[in-house]
Amino acid sequence: MRIVKEAVERRNEILDAADELFGKKGFDGTSTNDILDIVGIARGTLYYHFKSKEEILDALIERYNEQLIKNAKKAASDKSLSVNERMVRAITSLNISGGSGSQIIEQMHKPQNALMHQKTQYAMLMGITPILAEIVREGNDQGIYDTPYPYECMEMIMAYGSTIFDDAMIVMSADEKELRIQAFIFNIERLLGVPAGSMVKYVMRMLVSSDEEDHE
């Protein structure tokens, strides 16, 4: 008897298989036949849900984005921690790990996938900025931060950080990067209205986590 599954369930099975295969064999090394073998479906069923392997990758990226935003919300909601610590944890929770995470990053950094990269950065900016802005508002209420623009402040920080410190977009020498980091910290502290030097350890933790992701 042929098993007929709900469309959402079948779609997720395809994505799960692709996630596993991209992680093991790479995006370029995985064929649609490989995905069909794992899921056990006909090619027509695959094409009903996804028109191409690239479309599967787009859907995987969207699924990862949704999970990352969910992780950030969870980290930001732990009010047993200080606002600075919650901000660090929310941002570092955005690292992609497991499954085909490294393959997704590699694919997004290819020139032909510039639009995919741009869409992902936009999704992160729109999804994470409100989460961080709420933390800043709480910091304002507690007298830790002093900024009249919580949302705009975090939007600027996220936009700059995700662009300038993306090694695939901006190539810098070690000295140039160190200068950018110093300027980044300088401006974060002034945007948040906190004493000079008070955000150094928090920003460095965020950047170290980002570097580890890039080199996975």
Description:
By secondary structure, the protein is mostly helical. The chain has helices at residues 7-25, 32-39, 43-49, 53-76, 83-92, 101-108, 114-142, 150-164, 174-192, 200-214. It has two domains: 1-51, Arc Repressor Mutant, subunit A; 57-214, Tetracycline Repressor, domain 2 (Orthogonal Bundle), CATH 1.10.357. It contains ten helices and no strands.
Strand content: under 5%
Q: What is the H-and-E element order?
A: HHHHHHHHHH
| Poorly predicted segments | none
| Top CATH class of the largest domain | Mainly Alpha
Number of domains: 2
Largest sheet: none
Structural class: mainly alpha
Q: Average pLDDT, to the nearest integer?
A: 87
In CATH, the architecture of the largest domain is: Orthogonal Bundle
Q: How many H/I helices?
A: 10
Question: How far is the N terminus from the C terminus?
Answer: 44 Å
Counted beta strands: 0
Give the radius of gyration: 20 Å
Q: Shape from CA axes?
A: elongated
CATH fold topology of the largest domain: Tetracycline Repressor, domain 2
